[in-house]
Amino acid sequence: MNNCHLIYIATLIRKSILGEITLEEKRQLEDWLDESARHRELFDKYNNPDFLASVDIEKDMEEAQEAYSNFMQRLKPAKPVRRIVWNRYVAAAALIAFLCASAIFVYMYDGGKPHSPSGLAVVPVQQMDTVPADSTDILLITASGEKIPVQSSQKMLSVSSGTLRIDEQPIEEYAQVKTVPAEVVYNTLKILRGKRFKMQLSDGTLVWLNADSEITFPSNFDGKERKVLAKGELFFDVTENKSQPFIVETPTGNIRVLGTAFNIHCYEDEVPMTTLVRGKIAYSLGKESVILAPGQQCRVEDNKLSVREVDTYEYVSWIDEVLVFKDKELDEILSTLSRLYDVDIYYENPELKRLPFTGSFKQYEHLDKIIRMIEDCGLIRIKQDGKTLTISK
């Protein structure tokens, strides 16, 4: 039995234990149990509270927390934000918190042998060959309407004293005319499919933009509030200023903050969600408003707001060029790949969209390698024809 299917079975067992299993999932689990006496034996052992209590994962959980804390420490505005290099040990520690249940099950199924699952599994970053990024698929549209292509190999766009700079090199000067009322001029940074970029706003706020995203921002934050407009997926690490709240306007609601770190996911045709890492934010949609605490996520479905607790790293790992998926449907994973690699997805059977996968891989790994990783699960086949991926059973 392939390892990806084992992880799926472990997910069904977990749902069964928690009483969250659906009728269809229960049928699939019972079919698996009926296949052999060994399956029934493993289920009974895995379902035994005494066994779960005897598993020593405390050390791994502490390591996961330490790795996550180190990641959060790097987001503090008092320190320069640096790229985090994840080796095999740290990556495993950071992911063990939500993979340990499935890993234990696969370990037991293989007779207690050390095991590294295939498919969408935890992939050591140092084993991967990343694709060199050098493209003009990043476009800066200034307030005057000038379109300036930006190489993705360049590191960061910054705004300071009315001047736009790329890697500390000024690209356009703005006259600081103090009129009453002062006219706020806005620029737009667009990240096309297949790229990502980072920028620093005039107040010191750092913004990471994922593929197919954009931000509209002023050259200076004048007035009573700091306002930007955002589309796609962006991570904000906002500089604190209690006298000048930070406002993010999105197509599906507005976010009001003082000083915090949070992720926005608001792609068209996908469920909008805002995940809070640090601080406190207010999310509003029409007359409805909710306050988020760290570790909470606000989702917008059918024009209604809902809040849930989440593992925030799963939603912000992309800024460290790592993609993490926990029990995510295939359609969500392939939609992410579609943006990152500028490919279109076609399903021969729409039901395949709902297949669940768990794992992680390095962002900008060669697409053919990722395709092979997914196919190794044995559940689907992926045919690549130019910029089109066809998914079949």
From TrEMBL:
Pfam families: FecR (PF04773), FecR_C (PF16344). Residues 323-391 form the Protein FecR C-terminal domain. One of its GO terms (molecular function) is sigma factor antagonist activity. The chain crosses the membrane at residues 89-109. Keywords: Membrane, Transmembrane, Transmembrane helix. It comes from the Bacteria. Residues 193-281 form the FecR protein domain. InterPro entries: FecR, FecR_C, Ferrdict_sens_TM. The keyword Zinc does not apply. The keyword Transmembrane helix applies. This is DUF4974 domain-containing protein. It comes from Bacteroides thetaiotaomicron.
